[in-house]
Amino acid sequence: MNEKGSPGGKGATRDRRDQAQHVQSFLLELLKAASTSSGLEEMLATTHRALGKLMDTTNFYVALYDEATEHYSFPFHVDKHETDEQPPRSLPRSLTDYVRRTGQPLFADEKTDELLIREGHVDLVG
C-alpha cells in the first residue's frame, strides 16, 4: 500500500517498468532472429531462449494444426520428459486444442489447468 492506502507505489511502478523493459528486449530479440535466422528451427530456438528470460520454458513447444488431417505437428519441442521428436498427432480436448478452438492466448498454470479439466473443457493429456 502506498501512503494513500492504494496498492502500488514506487516499487510497483519500478516492477512494471522492469517488466516492460524485459518484454521490449524479448521483442527486439525476436525481430533480430526473424531477420538473421537461417531457418525456422533456428528462429524457434532463439525464441525459446529469449522467452526463457521471461518465464519458465523447461517444457516448451510450437504446435502447428493441419485442418485437413486434424493433426498437430511440432516443429520445435523441448521437454525434459519426452526427448524424442514428436510425430504429428490428433490432440482432441487437449489444452493445445482448447487454445486453438477458443482462439485466445492462455497462460495456464496448474490451477487454471485443473479448473479447465474440472469444467470439462479439456482432458488431461501428456
Q: Mean pLDDT, nearest integer?
A: 86
Strand order within the widest sheet? 1-2
Which parts are unreliable, with pLDDT below 50 for 5 consecutive residues or more?
Answer: 1-6
Report the biggest beta sheet as strand number plus sense, adding barrel if it closes.
Answer: 2 strands, antiparallel
Helix/strand/pairing class, anyone? alpha+beta
The residue fraction in helices comes out at 40-55%
Strand content: 5-15%
Q: Compute the separation of the termini in Å.
A: 42 Å
As a whole number of angstroms, the C-alpha radius of gyration is 18 Å
In DSSP terms (H or I, runs of 4 or more residues), the helix count works out at 4
State the shape.
globular
Helix and strand element order:
HHEEHH
Please provide a brief summary of the model:
The chain is α+β, with helices and mostly antiparallel strands.
Description:
The chain is an alpha+beta fold. The chain is built from four helices and two strands, in the order ααββαα. β1 and β2 (71-78) form a beta hairpin. It starts with 9 loop residues before the first helix and ends in an 8-residue tail after the last helix. Residues 1-6 have low confidence and may be disordered.
